[in-house]
């Protein structure tokens, strides 16, 4: 994938929940750059639950995700290092 003539990196993270849960995603990059984050519930399009363009640090709370497998897709165009974490919490 290219953005404005610069190679972009995509990272895909799989999350499997065994019960309905809240999930707090945290994404940080080594430089302040716009990062695109999407949550999908299937690999095939269209399956996006949401997609956001944000600047690091990014914190997203997804409430009451049903049991199942999800994919968090993180994209940016300036190739900084990216750290991603997901904390599983009781549903609200």
Break the fold down into its secondary structure elements and pairings.
Blueprint: E1 2-3, E2 6-7, E3 9-17, E4 21-29, E5 34-40, E6 48-55, E7 58-65, E8 68-76, E9 82-89
Antiparallel strand pairs: 1-2, 3-8, 4-7, 4-9, 5-6, 5-8
Entry summary:
The chain has 92 residues and is mostly beta strands. The chain has strands at residues 2-3, 6-7, 9-17, 21-29, 34-40, 48-55, 58-65, 68-76, 82-89.
Biggest beta sheet attributes: 4 strands, antiparallel
Strand content: over 45%
Helix and strand run: EEEEEEEEE
**CA-based gyration radius:** 14 Å
What's the tally of helices? Answer: 0
The overall pLDDT average reads 80
Oligomeric category: single chain
Strand arrangement, largest sheet? 3-8-5-6
Tally of individual domains: 1
- CATH class placement: Mainly Beta
In CATH terms, what is the fold-level topology? Jelly Rolls
Shape annotation? globular
Keywords:
9 strands; disordered N terminus; 92 residues; 3-stranded antiparallel β-sheet; globular; Jelly Rolls; 4-stranded antiparallel β-sheet; mainly beta
